[in-house]
Write the structure tokens for this entry.
Amino acid sequence: MDTVITGLGAVSPAGVGTAAYWAALVEGRTLIAPIPHFDTAGFPVRLGGTVPGFDPHEHLDGRYVVQTDAFSWFAMVAAAEALRDSGADTAADPYSTGVLVCSGAGGVEFGQRELAALCRSGPDHVGPYQSIAWFYAASTGQVSISNGLKGMCGVLVTEEPGMLDALGQSGQELRRGTSAMLVGGSEAPLGSPFSLACQLETGLLSTGEDPGTAYVPFSEEARGYVPAEGGAVAFVEGSSDARARGARVRAVVAGHASTFSGVGSMDPGGEGLLNAALGAMARAGVGPDDVDVVFADAMGTPKADADEAAAIRRLFPRGVAVTAPKTGFGRAYAGAGALDVAAAVLSLEHQVVPPTPHVSDPPVGLDLVVRVARPTPLRTALVLSRGAGGGNSAIVLKHPDHA
Amino acid sequence: MSQSTITIEELVELISTCAGIRTDAASAAARTFEELGVDSLGVLGIVAEIERRIGRKLPGDADMSPSPAALVALVDEGAPASLERL
């Protein structure tokens, strides 16, 4: 049984909604700007991709706003869009729909606020919602509670590849009898000094101050990546269930695989990423000539980019279109894989490969789509993702007409 | 000098800031926390904020108060003025 995506939602540096996200991707719009949430003086990192003008009260019941951190807000808003988009009646049997939202850090801004109150004024000044708001599982929990979804729920903490892994796991869950799953990933890593400080030790963040040149993977000027906030959620179900209720299938999840190859660091050499891609393609039953576009991980350091380019050349000796639309807004950690999956689904739907913003020329031997979007027939997309700590994942998504 | 009692109007404000629920004095006076949609963690936060404002601890079961009216009464009971009246 195929797993299909029948609903999609996104909150990104382009704003709320998948329509705003896709419009920005096709344009290759610059969504990187100085981090507005706090004073970054004293930090070597000044730029980020933040969700513009996001007021949670416009989207969520007030009681959820006071209980939760921004990473849960993004997940809840994206989940609501995905649910609406699916047209599914999840209330008929609340136990048939599960939730699996990935997080890489939890509610750090909320946590910093409460810990500051603890240190400044004592334990009586720590609010009771600290007990739930900062946990990794808060986003899944609140999506479940606010939508009355009582099926299998979990949170996956595998950093950037989270959404890819969640989609893989949701396939298993659907085979076990769950009717549908809301799967996604979200992160809010730019809300407080503490959250930014936690990211500095990787040494991978760009210290650039010009949004146009701070995050330029696969180029000689590559100097790390720009962090971002946001996330995406997909509604997935079995293809027969989708067909039975007349749902619009947005994409087919054809194959997923993950590897672990670098203890405490990024995958060295790209072997882990290569093997994840080979595994996902084998499970999807596709060869190099069947894949029309690759959404690259695009770490933004010379070594990581060279490793990834080498892996892609080995996978596709006759070439393939490659893009990394995240260079327009940054890497949103657990939200990054989710936003890349959303980009791939939208790309297949529109039959357009969005460009890799800010990278002006493709590197030798890699058909990187730069400057302008490329309209082209698209049957199958491969999404690649690497996470801090050494996880690598790949997922193959197919256009429903070619599944 | 901190205040010694709390009005239902102040409680309406605390229900909004601590639990994220908007209500009015008439509803707050007539309904239970559950009917207003305030969960147990919400009441816990409201009690902590009241204690900060009145500068004294409420009884340990204050967070079990079933309604805003009951909580206002509980605060009144322990207020210095009401102790003097006894």
Q: What stands out?
A: DSSP finds twelve helices and 16 strands in chain A. The interface with chain B takes residues 61-67, 124-125, 127-129, 131-132 of chain A (CB under 8 Å). Residues 270 and 304 of chain A are 7 Å apart (CA to CA).
